[in-house]
Amino acid sequence: MIAASERALTWDGLVNGRDLGGLATAHGPVLPGRLLRTASVHTLTARGWEQLLSHGVSTIIDLRHQWEIDRATPERGLVPGSVHRQVHPLEPPGYVEEWVARGQQWKLRTPRFYAEFLEDHPTRVAAVLTAIADAPPGGVVVHCQGGRDRAGLVVAMVLRLLGADLDVITADHWASYDRDEPIEVALGEQVAPDGPLPDRASYAAVIADALGRFPPEGCFGDEATAANIRLRLATRLCGA
């Protein structure tokens, strides 16, 4: 397995970026430059945008709420005109507020919310997977704010749909936590007082439970549609 450090994106200004190239699936390894996961691209400098283009990226899929987009967007004039930006909020309006009211906002910064989210909103995940499959030729960046939890769910579902082993999925996911400084600090945000993070084994169990109870095929409603998206993703990402 290619280490996350070897797949890290060092674009100027970028936080928590990785190329999924080299990760093993049932259709062969993901090809470099085909699918990338990052924190919000608003932190990229002019040089960072040049590096993004040099990497072959043609599409950016933003998973954030509109209020997040409004407060943190790239500076005008920096985003290349050749890059297609798509907004696919993974969570429905009021989602965060609902969890705050329930006293469970702490789950939103971890994969602990995955199982409940997949049960309640499978079509929102299906829409993002379809957007990746349908994107124009070139590399696709998927990002949320920190590139960790929402982007992590989408990447986990893509990899699982392509038949990747759970240890491959967990290793990539854990790389967003196994850092010298929390992503929030790198982005200039406050770290929520949630206490210490569980260890990798605990997270592996949470992810395995979520994907076991709600496999990606179930997000599409029928196996024929899921099989079609799987084939298109395998062709796009793995050259299968």
How would you explain this protein's 3D organization?
There is one protein chain. The protein is an alpha/beta fold and 240 residues long. Helix content is 42%, strand content 9%. The protein has helices at residues 4-7, 46-54, 66-71, 95-101, 114-120, 122-134, 150-161, 166-174, 183-186, 200-213, 223-238, and strands at 18-19, 35-38, 57-62, 84-87, 139-143. It has a 5-stranded mixed beta sheet, with helices on both faces.
Shape: globular
Number of discrete helical segments: 11
Number of strands: 5
* Radius of gyration (Å): 17 Å
Q: H/E order of the elements?
A: HEEHEHEHHHEHHHHH
Uncertain regions: pLDDT < 50 for 5+ in a row? none
Through-space gap between termini: 19 Å
Share of β-strand residues: 5-15%
Give a nutshell description of this structure.
With 240 residues, the chain is of the alpha/beta class.
How is the topology of this model organized?
Layout: H1 4-7, E1 18-19, E2 35-38, H2 46-54, E3 57-62, H3 66-71, E4 84-87, H4 95-101, H5 114-120, H6 122-134, E5 139-143, H7 150-161, H8 166-174, H9 183-186, H10 200-213, H11 223-238
Parallel strand pairs: 2-5, 3-4, 3-5
Antiparallel strand pairs: 1-2
Please give a handful of descriptors for the protein shown:
single chain; 240 residues; 5 strands; five-stranded mixed beta sheet; 42% helix; alpha/beta
